[in-house]
């Protein structure tokens, strides 16, 4: 066999597929039906609305926009057409204010006075809190560190003793 691709004739392919010659030529000349034309027209409108929304709209909003334009369409049909076109709404993460302004910071005192190298362990501790966004919402992460050892890996009882000591002083 040569390295060139093997070509098949139309009649040979029709025979392999079990299709009559007349049926094939009728199929080739067939014009799209009115429902097929309407379906393609709506799919085109869906693509236009989808790209105009910066790829954010899903089936409910696209259906609303199509109805505003006078189209009669169900949300499920719009969703089905979107799947056929490979279109999916992009989820936008909601913005949430996590910092609340208060006069609390004016009451704080600087106990370290910029002395970040204490002479003994457990003299000064520093903490920080942040949040990490997950699919289930915010997860808060807290860090507690002894400035003498710079150790983040603390046992729970040491943390609790430190917190209790700071409450009583």
Can you put this structure into words, describing what you see?
This protein is an alpha+beta fold and 169 residues long. The chain contains 6 helices and 2 strands, in the order αααααββα. Strands 1-2 form a two-stranded antiparallel sheet. α3 packs across α5 and α4 crosses α5. The N and C termini lie far apart (93 Å).
Q: What's the arrangement of secondary structure elements?
A:
Blueprint: H1 10-17, H2 21-29, H3 34-52, H4 59-68, H5 75-85, E1 125-134, E2 137-146, H6 156-168
Antiparallel strand pairs: 1-2
Give the overall shape.
elongated
Order of helices and strands: HHHHHEEH
What kind of sheet is the major sheet? 2 strands, antiparallel
Count of alpha/pi helices: 6
Q: Quick one: how many beta strands?
A: 2
Amount of helix? 40-55%
Distance between the termini: 93 Å
Mean pLDDT: 81
Unreliable parts: none
Structural class: alpha+beta
Order the strands across the largest sheet as they lie in space: 1-2
Estimate the strand proportion.
Answer: 5-15%
What is the gyration radius calculated from CA atoms?
34 Å
């Amino acid at each position: 066999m040569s390295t060139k691709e093997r070509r098949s004739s139309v009649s040979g392919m029709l025979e392999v597929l079990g299709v009559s010659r007349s049926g094939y030529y009728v199929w080739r000349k067939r014009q799209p039906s009115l429902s097929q034309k309407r379906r393609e027209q709506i799919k085109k409108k869906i693509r236009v609305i989808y790209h105009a929304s910066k790829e954010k709209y899903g089936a409910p909003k696209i259906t609303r926009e199509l109805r505003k334009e006078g189209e009669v369409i169900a949300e499920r049909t719009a969703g089905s057409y979107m799947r056929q076109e490979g279109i999916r709404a992009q989820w936008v993460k909601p913005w949430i204010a996590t910092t609340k302004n208060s006069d609390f910071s004016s009451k704080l005192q600087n106990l370290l006075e910029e002395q970040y190298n204490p002479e003994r362990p457990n003299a000064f501790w520093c903490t920080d809190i942040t949040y990490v966004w997950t699919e289930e919402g915010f997860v808060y992460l807290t860090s507690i560190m002894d400035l003498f050892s710079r150790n983040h890996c603390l046992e729970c009882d040491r943390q609790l003793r430190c917190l209790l000591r700071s409450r009583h002083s």
